[in-house]
DNA sequence: TATCCCAGTTTTGCATTCAAAATTGGAGCG
DNA sequence: CGCTCCAATTTTGAATGCAAAACTGGGATA
C-alpha cells in the first residue's frame, strides 16, 4: 500500500467519524486493520496532524482532532475566502461545457430538494461547490480547499436545515448558477460568501462544534 | 529533538536554498547533520511533501520541490486571496496598539527604502504583511498563509526591483497603512490584491520560476 | 564506437527492536 | 473508605535490520 493511500484511508476513517473527534487513535489496531506496521502508520498520522485532522500529544499518542466553535468559525471564514476566490477565477476560466455540467448538477440537486432528500441534496451541493473550485484551474487553491472543507465536512454537510433555510440555500444556488452563466466573477464571489456565511450561522447555531460526545454517526460519501 | 523541530529545521534548509529546488535530498547526510535516524527524518519529509516543499518519488527518494511558472502563478493567486481576506478581517479586529506597531514597522521600512537597503526593506515588508495576517485573528488562515508564502518566499522577497516598481510598492504600502488606520476592509483588501498582483508580475517577468540551475543563494531570515 | 545487458552496489521502504515515558493497578497508609 | 505511592505493564518515539527496488559501470555484441 502506497503512502498516499494510507493517508487517504485514515482520513476517510476520521471523516466518517468512525474514530469520533477527541477519541484516541488506536495505533496497534489500525496497523492490523490496514495490514501495515507502525512506521508507515505514524508517517501518515504526522501528515494528518499537519492537515489539522489529527492532534499529536507528545508521548501521549494521537487523537482525532476536535473542533471548537472558534475553530469552526475560523474554518468557515477561510472557506468563504477560498470559495470566493475560486468563484472569481472560475468565471474567468470556466468552459461552456463545464457550465453545462454544473447546470445539470444544479437541476438534479433542485429535484432532490423538491423530494426532500437531504442526503442526496447535500451530495449534489458538494459536487457543485467542488466543480466551481475545479473550474478555477488552480491546483494550489483546490488543495487548500480540500483540506479546509475536509475538516468542516461533517458539520457542513450534515446539519439539518429548517424549510426556510433550505429554501434560501436553494435560492442562493440559483443565483450562483446564474452568476456563473453570466461569468460575473464579482457577483459569484459575493453570493458564495453570503451562502457560506449563512451555512456557518446555521452550523454554529445548531451547536455542531465537536465537543464531548458529539458523534454524528453519518457517512456522507 | 521534537518532531516539529525536525520539520522546521528541514524547512529552513529548503527555504534558504541550501538544498536548491530540484536537488535530491540526501537522506543519510541530513540524518548525520541533524543527529537523528532515518525514521523521524522520513516522517518530516512526508509532512513537508504534503506542504508542497518536497516532492516524493516512490522508490526514488525525495527532492526539493521545483516551482514552475504555473505553480508560481497559482501560489500568488491564492496568496492574494488569503491576504485580501486577512485584510478584511484585520480591519474588523485589529487593535489600536497593533495598528501603531504596523505604522512603526511601515515607517522603518520606508527609511530602508530611502537608504536603498533592499534586504532590510524586504524584511520590514514581510513583517507588515505577516502582522496584518496575525491581526485577522484566524489561526487557520495564518497557517495556510505561512505555508503558501513559504513556497514563494524566495521569489517574493528576493526579486530585484526597478526604481519605478519599488516606488510603486512603497506607495501601495502607504495606502495599505492608510486603509488599516481607517479600518477600511474593502479598501485594504483591494489594495493588497493589487499590490500582490504587481509583485507577481514582477516575479514572473524576472523569470524566477525555479527551473534548472536557478539558485538564488540568498538567505532572508 | 555505441548500445545493451546484467552482476554488484546503493538506496528506499517497511518491519522489528529497544529505551524511555506514560499509564495502570494494587498495596500501604492516613 | 479514600488517598498516595511505586512497581509492573503498556505505549510511545526512535534506531536498527532486512528485503526489494533502483542505480552503476564494465564487458559483450552489433
From TrEMBL, chains A, B:
- GO MF, one example: DNA binding
Q: Name one Pfam family in it.
A: GntR
**Which ranges carry the HTH gntR-type domain?**
1-67
Q: Which branch of life, at top level?
A: Bacteria
Give yes or no: UniProt keyword Transcription regulation. Answer: yes
Going by the UniProt record, its keywords in alphabetical order are:
DNA-binding, Transcription, Transcription regulation
For this protein, the record's InterPro entries field holds: GntR_C, TF_FadR/GntR_C, Tscrpt_reg_HTH_GntR, WH-like_DNA-bd_sf, WH_DNA-bd_sf
Q: What is this protein called?
A: DNA-binding transcriptional regulator, GntR family
**Species the sequence originates in:** Bradyrhizobium shewense
Amino acid at each position: 500500500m502506497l503512502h498516499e493511500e494510507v493517508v487517504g484511508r485514515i482520513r476517510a476513517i476520521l471523516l466518517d467519524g468512525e474514530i469520533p473527534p477527541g477519541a484516541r487513535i488506536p495505533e496497534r489496531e489500525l496497523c492490523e486493520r490496514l495490514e501495515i506496521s507502525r512506521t508507515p502508520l505514524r508517517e501518515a498520522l504526522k501528515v494528518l496532524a499537519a492537515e489539522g485532522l489529527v492532534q499529536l500529544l507528545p508521548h501521549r499518542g494521537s487523537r482525532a482532532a476536535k473542533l471548537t466553535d472558534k475553530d469552526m468559525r475560523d474554518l468557515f471564514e477561510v472557506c468563504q475566502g477560498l470559495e470566493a476566490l475560486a468563484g472569481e477565477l472560475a468565471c474567468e476560466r470556466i468552459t461552456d461545457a463545464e457550465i453545462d455540467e454544473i447546470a445539470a448538477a444544479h437541476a438534479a440537486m433542485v429535484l432532490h430538494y423538491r423530494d426532500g432528500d437531504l442526503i442526496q441534496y447535500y451530495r449534489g451541493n458538494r459536487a457543485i461547490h467542488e466543480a466551481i473550485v475545479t473550474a478555477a484551474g488552480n491546483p494550489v487553491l483546490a488543495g487548500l480547499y480540500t483540506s479546509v472543507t475536509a475538516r468542516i465536512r461533517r458539520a457542513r454537510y450534515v446539519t439539518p436545515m429548517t424549510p426556510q433555510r433550505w429554501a434560501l440555500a436553494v435560492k442562493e444556488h440559483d443565483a450562483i448558477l446564474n452568476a456563473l452563466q453570466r461569468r460575473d466573477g464579482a457577483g459569484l464571489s459575493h453570493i458564495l460568501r453570503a451562502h457560506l456565511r449563512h451555512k456557518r450561522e446555521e452550523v454554529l447555531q445548531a451547536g455542531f462544534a465537536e465537543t464531548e460526545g458529539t458523534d454524528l454517526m453519518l457517512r456522507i460519501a
